[in-house]
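FIELD: query
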Amino acid sequence: MSPLSIRRAVRLLAMALGACGGDDVAAAFPADYAATYQEVRDCRGSADHDLRLIRVLADPAARAPYLARDAAFPVGAVLLKEEYDFGDPTCNGPIMQWTVMQRQGDGGDPLHLGWAWQRVDPDRRVVAADDSRCFGCHASCGEPPDGYLGTCAVP
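FIELD: result
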């Protein structure tokens, strides 16, 4: 194997490991988020989230920009998808996973659309961070209003 091939393999491995979560990574939303986050999209199916049903909630900083679509999301604003089993049409059962996007500052990676991304399991462990599956899908949302600043649907 050539030195160039080895360097490429090491880079690919580093990128793959960088997308995984770890015990030292904290979820980007508080455990008691339900006390302050508000629903901005009701329970509905999502082919992009393993056919699960989802609800989208916004923290207080993200709510107005998400709904009005006339201002930037402030740094630190959080949008959260609660993911439910496809057999739970009311989204009242156990949460199977959360998918979270948190607005980054001007220095954020443009590849990630100005957001940090996480997938969090029911035990609040981050199982993936900045997963290309997340920002890759959101990059294809298109222009506003559907693709408003990396979000993918009109509320």
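FIELD: remark
Residues 1-22 have pLDDT under 50 and may be disordered.
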